[in-house]
Amino acid sequence: MTDVLHPPVARADALPASRGPVSSAVVDVLAGRRPVTDLPSEPALDPYGDDLQLALYVLYELHYHGFAEVDPELEWEPELLRLRRSLERTFLAALQAEVPAGDDVDAEVEALLVEQADGDGPSWRLARDGQLWQLREYVIHRSIYHLKEADPQAWVIPRIDGQAKASLVTVEHDEFGGGRAERVHAQVFADMMTELDLDPRYHGYLEAVPADALAPVNLMSLCGLHRRWRGASVGQFALIEVTSSPGSARLVKAMQRLGTSEAATAFYVEHVEADAVHEQLVRRGLLADLVGREPELAVDVVFGMRALTLLEDRLGDHLMRSWDAGSSSLRTLV
Questions:
Q1: What is the largest CA-CA distance in the chain?
Q2: Closest by alpha carbon to 266, among 328, 159, 194, 167?
Q3: Over residues 54-79, mean pLDDT
Q4: Among the residues of 10-49, which ranges form H helices?
Q5: Residue 1 — pLDDT band, cuts 50, 70, 90?
């Protein structure tokens, strides 16, 4: 037992402002301002828009830390779950329409391992000539996931077996600090935010980020919370681990070029080193064993990789369009 408990990531527990009629209804019900019977039945929404993505994010958050003023009993309120299911179907239908099907997991991973000599995404821009304000915006967008890093994928642990489970848990053990609270990746990310003069609280920037930053995390939560989509959840986990190291190396380069502190770079330095090892665990243990045991899941594994890539590309395109125009990529200035 440790003698001193390391403080957890602080939380901004207030419900966010709504971004449309559906998220308004969800927030009002959770805040006790309207009855659950007032929730819409089958809302027709843009699957990638702010209203749907915020409503879905808030509903998923009931299964994580929740919100201070929300009754914990609402986590399993049938009417909220019914609405969530409707939003999920809209979101999934859009992804399935855009993502080409495939079932060759090995080929998918091999393609991910081909690193471009040069690229035009946010991490490339930041490494080459990005400015400090752009780095800070990038970190704000990423905080939506990294302050709950590896939590969505933890849902899949009881849903797989054998070496796949052992390999997933081994990687998750590292993500959660290897037994040391101060090394939990969410905490290391929060420490980096402090070094960059950003608000390190969980949900500190939920109001500031657009739907494009919420959608990848929503997909992780959706697949983690549905046993039906366990293959896709594993695919997303694999994508993150396989592609993280080179991207993190570019961000370390960017931060060093911009003169940030050594403490600020610690998060991405950790991911350069750890994820190179994780790649082998994911490929040879997690993916090989899962698909070997349940070959029918191969198509879902590939879908998980491709769907998350699509959403990450949408976020990257949003950042690059904003920066190329000389404007902020955030909804509100910070």
A1: 55
A2: 194
A3: 96
A4: 21-30
A5: very low
Cα-based distances in Å from 208 to 220, 257, 332:
20, 26, 5
**CB atoms near residue 270 (< 10 Å):** 17
**Residue in 105, 59, 64 with CA at minimum distance from that of residue 80:** 59
Q: Is 226 exposed, middle or buried (0-12, 13-18, 19+ CB in 10 A)?
A: middle
**Over the range 199-223, which residues count as b (16 or more CB within 10 Å of their CB) and which as e?**
bbbbbbbbbbbbbbbbbbbbbbbbb
- Length of the chain counted residue by residue: 334
132-146 vs 211-225: helix crossing angle, rounded to 10: 20
Amino acid at 50: D
Give the span between the Cα atoms of 290 and 286, in whole angstroms: 6
In whole angstroms, give the CA distance from residue 187 to residue 179.
13
> How much is the average pLDDT of 104-132?
90
| Token pair recorded at residue 214 | 């919420």
Number of C-alpha atoms within 13 angstroms, CB side, residue 279?
17
DSSP H helical segments within 38-121, as ranges?
Answer: 50-61, 78-98, 105-112
